[in-house]
């Protein structure tokens, strides 16, 4: 069956992307790939498959569409060079390593004959390929331009994998109705990989070492995973819950231990009774991300805020931030991301929203954010459970700070370096904050909270402040008994 016939057959299932197995378990090797970027890549694959089926691809093998069909929020007035480039550039410049989900997938015919400009036949592939390593860019070339006043994009896939991406011989059925609801990179990657086994008689994925899964499910090649327990609690467990709550499949984590330590991991996969309505692919909406970028807020920060509070709350927070900046004689905001977080959290608190506990550290009492957001005559709240919770959180913070102070200087410096890398990647830090992080001055009031909280999330638990008291005390005792402070 030729490539066009395969695509026509696959398009029978409305609202489903038949995503090639070579685009599922991919590990970025040189830069981070955001959840927005990964979703946009799936939309581009779907558009390419439809154009190939209709014979509408370019004579040079490229695929074209309005930019707004890939990323919502790019109107005709948006700047191509500054707004669109960073998302498209992710896919052109990100090198990924493909991890086959099974041994049989190591022998897919992904060759390329320069003489003919076409993929090689399966018969030319050497038999019994094992331990194969393939690294390629997600896209080979992209052109962004104006057509009749509208932003357009033309893209090209690497020639050796083009046919397998556009007309895959093995694929996973990815439901766009589910994909649009998932909010983290880990959830999107895990869903796409497990969807490969939706109709598998065995009902389980391949069994891999836990580090294999950790690398395939994280978005950044620079984040080092020190322990499966921590990665599972922080990323995998929330992703499984999100998929099971929203998806068309149900996933179960299966761990294989050697002694007390988890060594291998696989996932059980079964169809869910839930059947989301089939829908055409909806491109990720980057309207808030574009607005935040103009205010100095990183896209990853906006994604986190949308995940915690919802897109509407973030849009309202951006409105408030813009109104604040439009006033005269406003002070310079050192950390725009933290400031926006404080605005949204304050608004959520006023409305009694559940997002109150997610407030950032950007604004304190008496800051401009409070002056804008809090009613001047608001009475002091009566003593409540929040006061007791705050006291307990402060007590735990003090204990963790004392534990951190007992680490040797080299370990403290390493933790401060990790905080500095995280701040640089997710926010626009003020010079005063960066100066203290560069000097390793973790006790400075400007950086102490972010250092201790980062340490607590990684070494105690992601929800260290909300753990039951007995569990918190047990974890603290374990660390004080001699567990390394930093692995």
TrEMBL record:
It comes from the Bacteria. Gene3D superfamilies: Winged helix-like DNA-binding domain superfamily/Winged helix DNA-binding domain (1.10.10.10). It holds the Pfam family Rep3_C. Residues 374-394 are annotated as: Disordered. This is Uncharacterized protein. It comes from Pseudaquabacterium pictum.
């Amino acid at each position: 069956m030729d490539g066009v016939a395969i695509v026509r057959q696959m398009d029978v299932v409305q609202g489903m992307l038949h995503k090639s197995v070579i685009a599922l378990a991919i590990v970025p090797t040189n830069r981070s790939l955001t959840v927005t970027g990964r979703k946009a890549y799936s939309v581009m694959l779907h558009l390419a498959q439809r154009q190939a089926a209709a014979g509408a691809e370019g004579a040079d093998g490229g695929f074209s569409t309005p930019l707004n069909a890939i990323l919502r929020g790019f109107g005709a007035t948006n700047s191509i060079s500054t707004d669109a480039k960073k998302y498209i550039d992710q896919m052109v410049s990100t090198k990924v390593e493909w991890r086959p989900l099974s041994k049989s997938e190591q022998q897919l015919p992904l060759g390329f004959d320069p003489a003919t400009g076409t993929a090689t036949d399966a018969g030319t592939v050497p038999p019994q390929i094992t331990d194969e390593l393939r690294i390629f860019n997600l896209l080979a070339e992209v052109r962004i331009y104006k057509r009749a006043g509208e932003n357009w994009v033309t893209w090209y896939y690497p020639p050796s994998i083009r046919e397998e991406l556009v007309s895959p011989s093995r694929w996973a059925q990815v439901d766009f109705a589910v994909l649009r609801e998932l909010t983290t990179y880990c959830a999107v990657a895990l869903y796409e990989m497990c969807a490969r086994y939706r109709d598998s008689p065995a009902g389980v994925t391949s069994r891999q070492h836990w580090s294999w899964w950790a690398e395939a499910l994280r978005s950044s090649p620079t984040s080092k995973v020190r322990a499966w327990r921590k990665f599972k609690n922080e990323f995998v467990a929330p992703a499984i819950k999100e998929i099971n709550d929203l998806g068309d499949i149900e996933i179960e984590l299966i761990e294989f231990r050697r002694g007390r330590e988890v060594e291998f991991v696989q996932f059980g996969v079964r169809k869910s009774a839930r059947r989301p309505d089939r829908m055409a692919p909806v491109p990720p909406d980057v309207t808030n991300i574009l607005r935040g970028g103009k205010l100095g807020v990183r896209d990853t920060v906006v994604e986190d805020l949308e995940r915690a509070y919802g897109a509407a709350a973030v849009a309202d927070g951006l409105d408030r931030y813009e109104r604040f900046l439009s006033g005269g004689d406003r002070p310079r905001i050192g950390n725009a991301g933290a400031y926006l977080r404080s605005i949204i959290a304050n608004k959520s608190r006023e409305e009694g929203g559940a997002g109150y506990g997610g407030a950032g550290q950007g604004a304190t009492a008496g800051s401009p954010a409070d002056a804008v957001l809090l009613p001047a005559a608001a009475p002091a709240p009566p003593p409540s459970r929040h006061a007791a919770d705050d006291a307990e959180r402060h007590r735990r913070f003090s204990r963790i700070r004392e534990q951190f102070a007992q680490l040797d200087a080299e370990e403290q410096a390493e933790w401060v370096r990790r905080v500095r890398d995280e701040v640089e990647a997710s926010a626009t830090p003020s010079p005063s904050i960066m100066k203290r992080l560069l000097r390793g001055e973790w006790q400075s009031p400007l950086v102490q909270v972010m250092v201790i909280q980062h340490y607590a999330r990684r070494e105690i638990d992601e929800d260290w402040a909300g753990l039951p008291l007995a569990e918190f005390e047990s974890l603290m005792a374990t660390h004080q008994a001699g567990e390394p402070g930093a692995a």
